[in-house]
From TrEMBL:
Keywords: Elongation factor, GTP-binding, Nucleotide-binding, Protein biosynthesis. Pfam families: EFG_C, EFG_III, EFG_IV, GTP_EFTU. Residues 552-642 form the Elongation factor EFG domain. Gene3D superfamilies: 3.30.230.10, 3.30.70.240, Elongation Factor G (Translational Gtpase), domain 3 (3.30.70.870), P-loop containing nucleotide triphosphate hydrolases (3.40.50.300). This is Elongation factor G. It comes from the Bacteria. It comes from Rhizobium mesosinicum. GO terms for molecular function: translation elongation factor activity. SUPFAM superfamilies: EF-G C-terminal domain-like (SSF54980), P-loop containing nucleoside triphosphate hydrolases (SSF52540), Ribosomal protein S5 domain 2-like (SSF54211). InterPro entries: EFG_II, EFG_III/V, EFG_IV, EFG_V, EFG_V-like, P-loop_NTPase, Ribosomal_Su5_D2-typ_SF, Ribsml_uS5_D2-typ_fold_subgr. PANTHER family: ELONGATION FACTOR G-LIKE PROTEIN (PTHR43261:SF7), TRANSLATION ELONGATION FACTOR G-RELATED (PTHR43261).
Length: 653
């Protein structure tokens, strides 16, 4: 079986392309994952094929990356409008990072919204590989009625619902065809000395030789050939499928590529697990592509026995199913297989770095509908995070509530639907509470005496403490300058412990940071003093001093790296300024052509707004990662509003 992925932005006709390709020589068989990855099996040219139709939302990019792990080649569907080229930028980035041979298909050419050369030029801004036209459109007025193959120099007229008919190259297209063919040959000659010599000697190379060279450079991932058509009318489908058949590399090349990327012995690389999902009453289903022989039920894979092997199209299990090298199969009761992973019989190896999904930007707390679902929710989210690497599951600081980081609102909605439909856990979501701190603006001194008389021994401790602001980032410090044993040495650790306890909640209701406490005097009682008494005296004394120290609210500030296509960089300055952030600068992204990495300091409370503004400004393409940088003071009405909304004022004594 040969396998390819069809990927690209939404509304570019990916599913239609797969449907038409699968129907060229018979009826295809199709299955769908809850994550939107469609699998279609069909026969073409007496060979078995599997097409992976990857979801088109940028929020589902992780599943696109994983599909490429199992693909000999891929088809990138793009729009025929030059201004929409930027929407293909994330997919070009992933394709090039993966090293997957790619054919670029300009779809919906029956709705031309610009010149083809402008579309290619716009896409080239985001591709390190040369995008090389293999066909040009034949126009009749404003309509595209066919295409001309630049290698065979044959022209074809589209026919609705039928195969295209061979025609002579129209005079109106002859000059464009000659110009485009010359450019094609010049680029191909960069990878073939014989062709270069033929061109220098002004000899016309035969078509068979050109097809062979073109096939080789695609297999070697040297260029990205460009084909055109309109899948909804069946136009260009046969040519696209023939290009895949003759030019896409065999499964052995994929095995070599993955073994090299994962530093695995090629002969031991038995399979690749590339997709998984949970189904009601069935459990975890894993999609695997075989590289070796003998992967039947009970065989050793990933360090344990393989569960039931299923036909991925109909979900039927059979002990008679023995996938051949290249076949895609499903397996259940194989929960030991991580996804994605490179699989040997003895274990699982982490996938290549390029499969790492974009950092999720949307943070939400998931609240179960009933108390009995709280533990179940935690376990279920852990399961889902295993099958969806675009999802990160954490616990909220302070409350321990279930916090998820999703790629965006659609990803979050799909997660909630899966929890409800598959696991019967209904949840609502809310924005997590921002992490604020407080400190003091001025020093103070306090004298606190703790005295308590009970039936037996009493409690007595007397402390004199000075409290002062520390420099930013230094945190809590404690020191002592007592003399003469007024506070015995064995009680001083208790004084420090009490001061630390007082820092847990200050007068504004938040944890106190960057404060220094010094014990400089005190008294003790030979019978009634104890560690508990001194800890209590210190805690109460520090609380009192904090209430007199002009408490100041501190907001977290995060260092953000925003990844965006360069055409959007100019709009980010205004976005960051509107969020009261600080622009640090930007650089070209050395790993992705046409992208910038924009650096800024953003207040923690504005990160949600940054995610929304970024999605809006970049048509959902841009994303950011964040790391905590520091806390800074916040004053005025904004600070007052935060204290009213989130603070739980401590009790001063």
């Amino acid at each position: 079986m040969r396998c390819f992925t069809v990927l690209g932005p939404s509304q570019t006709g990916k599913s239609t392309v797969v449907e038409k390709l699968g129907s060229l020589e018979g009826a295809p068989r199709k299955s769908t994952s809850p994550y939107g990855l469609n699998l279609t099996e069909f026969t073409f040219g007496n060979e078995a094929w599997c097409a992976l139709d990857a979801p088109g939302l940028s929020e589902a990019l992780a599943h696109v990356q994983h599909a490429l792990l199992a693909s000999d080649a891929c088809i990138l569907c793009v729009s025929s409008a030059p201004e929409e080229a930027v929407l293909a930028a994330p997919y070009l980035r992933v394709v090039e990072a993966s090293g997957t041979p790619c054919i670029l298909f300009v779809n919906r050419m029956d709705e031309p919204r610009g010149r083809l050369r402008d579309v290619i030029a716009a896409l080239q801004d985001y591709a390190n590989h040369t995008l090389l036209l293999r066909q040009i459109p034949i126009r009749e007025g404003d309509r595209i009625i066919g295409s001309c193959d630049l290698i065979s120099e044959r022209a074809w007229r589209y026919r609705e619902g039928q195969t295209s008919s061979l025609i002579a190259i129209p005079e109106s297209a002859a000059e464009r065809e000659h110009e485009a063919r010359t450019e094609l040959l010049e680029h191909l000659s960069e990878f073939d000395d014989w062709l270069l010599e033929e061109l220098i000697e002004d000899r016309e190379p035969p078509s068979d030789a050109l097809y062979a060279i073109s096939s080789r450079v695609l297999r070697e991932n040297r260029i990205i050939p460009v084909l055109i058509g309109a899948a909804s009318h069946g136009n260009g489908m046969m040519r696209l499928m023939k290009a895949l058949r003759h030019e896409a590399p065999p499964v052995g090349v994929l095995r070599q590529r993955l073994a090299r990327a994962g530093n695995v012995d090629e002969n031991k690389l038995t399979a690749v697990g590339f997709h998984a999902y949970h189904r009601q009453n069935i459990g975890k289903t894993v999609l695997v592509r075989a590289f070796g022989e003998g992967l039947r039920q009970g065989a050793l894979l990933g360090g344990s026995s393989l569960g039931a092997v299923q036909d991925p199209a109909n979900g039927r299990s059979s002990s008679a199913i023995v996938p051949a090298p290249g076949d895609v199969f499903a397996t259940v009761k194989s929960d030991h297989l991580p996804v994605p992973s490179l699989l040997t019989s003895d274990g699982a190896v982490a996938p290549p770095e390029w499969t790492e999904p974009p950092t999720p930007m949307l943070e939400r707390i998931l609240v179960p509908g009933s108390v009995r679902d709280e533990n179940k929710l935690s376990e279920t989210l852990a399961k889902l995070a295993e099958t969806d690497r675009g999802l990160v599951v954490l616990q909220e600081e302070g409350t321990g509530a279930q916090l998820v980081r999703a790629q965006g609102p659609v990803h979050l909605r799909d997660l909630c639907r899966t929890l409800s439909d598959v696991f019967h856990i209904d949840v609502t979501d809310r924005t997590p509470s921002p992490i604020y701190r407080e400190t003091i603006a001025k020093p103070s001194e306090v004298h606190y005496r703790h005295r308590k008389q009970t039936g037996g021994a009493g409690q007595f401790a007397d402390v004199k403490l000075s409290i002062r602001p520390n420099e930013r980032g230094r945190g809590f410090t404690f020191s002592e300058t007592v003399k003469g044993g007024v506070v015995p040495r064995n009680y001083i650790p208790a004084v420090e412990a009490g001061a630390r306890e007082a820092m847990e909640k200050g007068p504004l209701g938040f944890q106190v940071i960057d404060v220094g406490v010094t014990l400089f005097d005190g008294q003790h009682h030979a019978v009634d003093s104890s560690e508990h008494a001194f800890r209590t005296a210190s805690k109460m004394g520090v609380r009192q001093a904090l209430s007199e120290g002009s408490a100041v609210l501190m907001q977290p500030v995060f260092r953000s790296e925003i990844h965006i296509p360069s055409i959007y960089s100019g709009s980010l300055v205004q976005i960051v300024s509107a969020l009261k952030g600080q622009v640090l600068g930007f650089d070209r992204d050395e790993t992705a052509k046409g992208w910038d990495i924009f650096r800024a300091l953003i207040p923690g409370g504005a990160l949600d707004d940054l995610a929304r503004a970024l999605r809006s400004a970049t048509q959902g393409i841009g994303y950011f990662s964040k790391t905590f940088d520091h806390f800074e003071e916040l004053y005025g009405k904004e600070a007052d509003a935060i204290v009213r909304a989130h603070g739980e004022p401590g009790v001063a004594h």
